Amino acid sequence: MTTDSTDTAAAPADPRGASAGGPALARTRDELRTARAALDDGDVAVVMTMGALHDGHATLIRRARETHAHVVVTIFLNPLQFGPKEDLSRYPRTFDADLQICAAAGVDLVFAPTPDVIYPDGDPGVRISAGPLGDVLEGQSRPGHFDGMLTVVAKLMHVTRCTSAYFGQKDAQQLLLIRRMVRDLDFPVRVVSVPTVREADGLAMSSRNTYLTSSDRETALCLSAALRAGAAAAAEGPSAIRRAAREVLVHEPLALVDYLVLVHPETLQDVPEWYRGEALLAVAGRIGTTRLIDNLPVLVGPGGGPLEIFTHD
Ligand code: AMP
Which residues are bridge partners to 283 per DSSP? Predict the structure, then answer.
């Protein structure tokens, strides 16, 4: 499978050093090898993206920058994780602006390959399997998505030779599966999670927000509002949380809710009514033509409420 032509594909390779005023840019495996060799070994953090960078991505990069000698950003729209009816062809492509964000955030190296660089033999016959955790929630609406995602994450961890990798809590199921892959398959990589970055009105930042019309955008606010309402009822227990969140969503008929769940953060199974402790309140829905996801880590029980991030992370 190939992507349609992108400005990523059109721009020339430019293996500059970070010291020349911006990140080195690698398009091919050879360019990556050369640029990566110029970074001191031992402490390289990677931030993997699909481009169309926003402040959520920039926050991941800044977090990585704070603790690591070197930061590599990958920009790759992975065809393997898009279903045939999904938005690969219309996904926003803003490569020049992405490079500027990387430069401002102090990135050392940007790896922006095309699909034929990542999959030189075409569709990979061997893939990482997400297992049962990949079949629920997002996996139910997007069959094969997590296998495709894990396969590219594994490959990018290998080719960048990173020691740490930063991912957003925004994609909670993705983050959990990457942690599981690293643990289950003994990848020598530290996975670091970063809290969801939101617009001032609560909307979780997403490259897909650019699809929203202004009225869609108003409608989309119900997702984060539902999560906040649910978290505000956290002291009362699981059914109160679900009820409070659902109450917000039923008042917004233009949001076609795919799921609203309160699940255990490691098993993704619904938590029972007696459950106390950390849980994931997650929502997905279609607003106009755009499918959005959002979630909030929540402490369930007395003194409970929203969490920035899970404490086991
Ligand atoms: P994407 O380009 O959408 O695949 O995202 C690349 C990385 O940025 C993933 O680890 C995402 O979870 C993370 N990310 C995307 N949006 C946000 C956000 N609003 N806050 C925090 N991290 C985010």
Answer: 260, 294
User: What DSSP assignment string belongs to 37-99?
Assistant: HTSPTT-EEEEEE-S---HHHHHHHHHHHHH-SEEEEEE---GGGS-TTSSTTTS---HHHHH
Verify whether ligand 1 is closer than 6 Å to residue 149 (CB atom). Answer: no
Q: Which residue has the tokens 């927000």?
A: 209
Q: Which atom of ligand 1 is nearest to the CA of 171?
A: 12
- Residues 5-26: what's their mean pLDDT? 53
What are the distances in angstroms from CA 6 to CA 26, 81, 158, 259? 16, 17, 25, 33
* Ligand 1: residue whose CA is nearest its atom 6: 49
- Tokens 């911006």 locate to 22
- The β-bridge relationship of strands 109-111 and 164-168 is unpaired
Q: What is the Å distance from ligand 1's center to 44 Cα? A: 19
* 237 CB-contact burial (10 Å; exposed 0-12 / middle 13-18 / buried 19+): buried
Each residue of 195-228: pLDDT tens digit?
A: 999 999 999 999 999 999 999 999 999 999 999 9
* pTM of the full structure: 0.93
